Please model this.
Amino acid sequence: MSEAELHVLKARLRGGILNKVRRGEYRCALPTGFVYDEAGNVVLDSDAQVRETITYFFETFDRVGSACQTVKVFRNEGLNMPSRPCNQAAAIFRPLTASAALRVLNNPRYAGAYVYGRRLYRRSANGKKTVQRKRQFDDWLACIPEAHPGYITWERFQENLKILETNGRGYEVARASPPREGAALLQGRAVCGRCGRHFRVRYATRRGRQEAWYVCDRAHGSRGEPNCQSIAGSPIDEAIGALVVERMTPAAVELALEIRTEIEARHEEADQLRCRAIERAQIEADLAQRRFMLVDPGNRLVADTLEGEWNDKLRAMAKACEDREHGRQEEQLVLDDVVRERLVSMTTDFQKLWGDPGTPNRERKRLLTYLIEDATLIKIPAAGSTRIHVRFKGGKTETLTVLNPKSSAQQVKTQPQVVELVDKLLDEHIYSEIADLLNEQGLRPGGSARPGRGDDCFTASRVAYLVHRYGLRSRYDRLRDRGLLTKEEAATRLGIHPCTLVRWAQHSIITRLAYNAHAYLYEAPELNPPVKHCSRWNPLVDRAATIKAAKVSKPSYQTEGDAV
Ligand SMILES: [Zn+2]
Model:
């Protein structure tokens, strides 16, 4: 046989195969879990263990949402995946691998579809078949859904493919990794407000607690630049949780349903308009037909024109009918009362589920997947806050502002208002008095924020520390500014011995003010200063009593000076 004949034969055989393929009749090797029965139909494997394991595999993937997690579940539970190599009747069980899991998830036959030509093969020089490339879905030679029984539905299969695709974008800009057990709710959904890249999530255990951070370190990884932003996770997660619970209220669902009813009413109106269009097209087509029928068959030119017109009208009518059908299909989703009630009850269930401490974070993140598209975070260090722009699935946006947690140093720092108060109190009080006043007002020193130091109170030495640390003007200087004199100065001015001055001060003949717990400054009046009496005839006690009595009867005594 010549080369040409061989080529023709081969082409005809190939043509025959392709014809069978298009009808879904061409027999090809089946994946594990399917067999051909005597009649040549594809049926599920008769081995119950094989069937159950494959069903469990798909259930596990639904639950965990990732091929690798499925492999982990199988390993932890000690399960093996069946495999039936070619030409072997008995299935062998071996540990599930990630590649096997992906192969099963990507195989449309498990969804009961007959497919052929998903890959393009080519024979290499040694005669072996090698995969040249994968074909796009549209280029498959055959794809007949629901051709035979399957383990999952066709819709489920396509959803699984979508999940796999988003999971596989780990290192792309738009990272939407499968939800993990960590506490950072915005995992894979937080976008950096400064550079537009996706945040990575970092966890660390500090003081026995696990803390999460959103870190934008892509530039660090690729170009060694410093981290773009690093934001503590807990306040952001709390704000997002509160927002989601607040939004998922029965009132919100009722409102959405009201809008839906209104839209349905509009659809009815639109449908009526489309019906009118069909009627009009029908009338015009009838008219064109009548005109064509009435024309003289001998007058070919006119007849041709009228026939063309009739055809156009018929085409217009067909299009109007098609438009109406298309529109109706789109609007078919009508919500009845049962669905409405279910939606309302779901919101309360949602709030319960979200607030339940037993709900794993993985499930919370999954719930979030249905609500939030992404959230952009911008840290504002000057204000000590972070701005969160949340984008909901429906396209609505919401902006939140949360306070960043304070650093350890900031936490133990004394509050500025306490320092201000101390500054004010220094005019009238000494350190120990100020400490008592602060404690009375329920204020606590900064150090009380440290673990186990909650009972710390202000003491004189703590107040002294604040005064020195914040450079407040000392009480001594303040009193000196007010014109108070030291013991020696006052004694010199009054012309008495310092010991006499002290005794006078003790008996309130002159005023003295403490500038610390042990020392005083003295007021020496310029007008009518007290003079020394003979204590034999006028003891100090009597003199003090006289002054006191004079002060009570004549409050303006001080301004007039000491007349005693
Ligand atoms: Zn960034």
Summary: The pocket of zinc ion is lined by residues 192, 194-195, 197, 216, 228-229 (CB under 6 Å).
